[in-house]
Design a protein that fits this description.
With about 425 residues, the chain is α+β, with helices and mostly antiparallel strands. The protein contains seven helices and 23 strands.
Length: about 425
């Protein structure tokens, strides 16, 4: 739980994407408001409109009218700010159990999770169920965890109370196999230990923002295998170019690649970014590739390295997002990158208890917010990247008749 596992500050211009989560009224929206305020990310009229004691910081983030009326966060909201060391994208996830599915959406685009805990609501170190649920989802999605122990000013910055929470977090982290967890005592309303130091003399650790800066985040996707889902084909005179966003890996002119599930081999003749030829493209770039020999490829095919594997059957963790329960035998559409194909949930291996990741192996149904390990078969071969190591290890299921998104999945095994 110390800072040894957190590396030095990131280089300037690095981008860190983190999500925030916490039970209702734990102060998550106030914490984000404080981050934006003290990082200088607010407009002058927003700052002028705040109460002198900054008691209404939550209004800066609870943007929906329904959220303001109910005093809760409903949808995932994205906020942006920057410091001299890095730029930040915050995915603010809902705290209420009803909107747990939205946390999965926020986690899918994040590098690290910040979990807010109201220390005044912790009795004998017992973490609240929704706190455990959020930590579990972060573990399931492969995120490291930073815990902001909030409202420390309300208990006179009691070191004993903070250490009780810290020990409880350690036990939960061990149960969830979370290797990188850090707790920071803060007061979001006052701003202590959020962006600037303050509060207790006994705290000699970093501020919350500094811990976020030092977080490991997900591995650099440029170091991963080449994965370029084809979104469209372009013409440059008589030559065809295959365009899309490079999800992982690096590509250069002269590289040998394979195209689509048939894995037809080709050589990269030209790499273009923004209409101009370049010597290299890295993960995150929107590129167009000219191949030495034109291939019969279409939207949804993937240009990859020779190690790419395609299958028609996968085991996956699936978060059910539809208010209507899963119907056995119903065929859904699976979307992976730009590929769409028909899919069938063959069986439920088990449903996870989202407070501790334990398995309930007798379930025969999937309901809203359930997270289950399932076996899925597909009409067409799909790329068998495992979620923890591949950029295309995630997918969604939707109803082809209503276009309702039914589930978000993470590939765990392929066969």
């Amino acid at each position: 739980m110390d800072g040894a596992s957190f590396p030095a500050l990131m280089a300037p211009d690095a981008q860190i994407r983190f999500m925030t989560a916490g039970s209702v009224d734990d102060g998550k929206s106030t914490l984000i408001g404080r981050l934006l305020l003290d990082a200088g990310a607010l407009m002058q009229d927003q700052t002028d409109a705040l109460d002198p004691d900054y008691a209404d910081l939550a209004n800066l983030t609870d943007g929906l009218e329904a959220e303001r009326q109910q005093g809760i966060t409903i949808d995932v909201a994205y906020r942006y700010f920057a410091t001299p060391h890095a730029s930040f994208v915050i995915a603010d996830a809902p705290g209420h159990e009803q909107y747990t599915r939205n946390m999965v959406t926020a986690a899918s685009t994040s590098d690290v999770a910040v979990l807010v805990i109201d220390v005044t609501r912790i009795v004998d170190g017992e973490l609240r169920p929704q706190t455990r649920r959020h930590a579990t989802i972060a573990a399931l999605m492969g995120l490291d965890l930073i815990v902001a122990v909030n409202k420390m000013d309300a208990i006179d910055w009691s070191q004993q109370r903070f250490q009780e929470v810290e020990r409880s977090v350690e036990r939960l982290a061990e149960a969830l196999s979370l290797r990188h967890v850090r707790c920071v005592p803060v007061s979001a309303r006052r701003g202590d230990n959020v962006v600037r130091r303050g509060g207790a003399d006994w705290w000699t650790g970093a501020t919350l923002l500094d811990v976020i800066k030092r977080s490991r985040g997900k591995s650099d996707r440029s170091a991963g295998p080449l994965r370029l889902p084809i979104q469209t084909m372009l013409r440059d005179g008589v030559r065809r170019l295959y365009a899309g966003r490079l999800e992982s890996g690096v590509v250069r002119p002269g590289d040998t690649v394979v195209v689509g599930a048939s894995k037809v081999q080709a050589n990269v003749g030209r790499v273009c970014i923004g209409g101009r030829a370049t010597s290299v493209a890295v993960a995150g770039d929107s590129v167009a590739l000219e191949l030495s020999d034109e291939r019969d490829a279409a939207r949804g095919d993937v240009i990859a390295d020779s190690g790419a594997r395609y299958v028609r059957s996968i085991a996956a963790d699936l978060c059910w997002l539809d208010e209507d329960a899963w119907v056995r035998g119903r065929r859904y559409q699976l979307r992976q990158g730009a590929l769409e194909t028909q899919a069938l949930i063959e069986e439920i291996n088990f449903v996870r208890d989202v407070t501790d990741l334990s398995k309930r192996e007798t379930s025969s149904s999937l309901n809203l917010n359930d997270i289950a390990n399932v076996r899925i078969s597909t009409r067409d071969p799909i790329l068998a990247d495992v979620y923890s190591s591949g950029a295309l290890g995630a997918f969604v299921l939707f109803d082809p008749q209503t276009n309702q998104t039914c589930g978000a999945g993470m590939i765990r095994e392929a066969s």
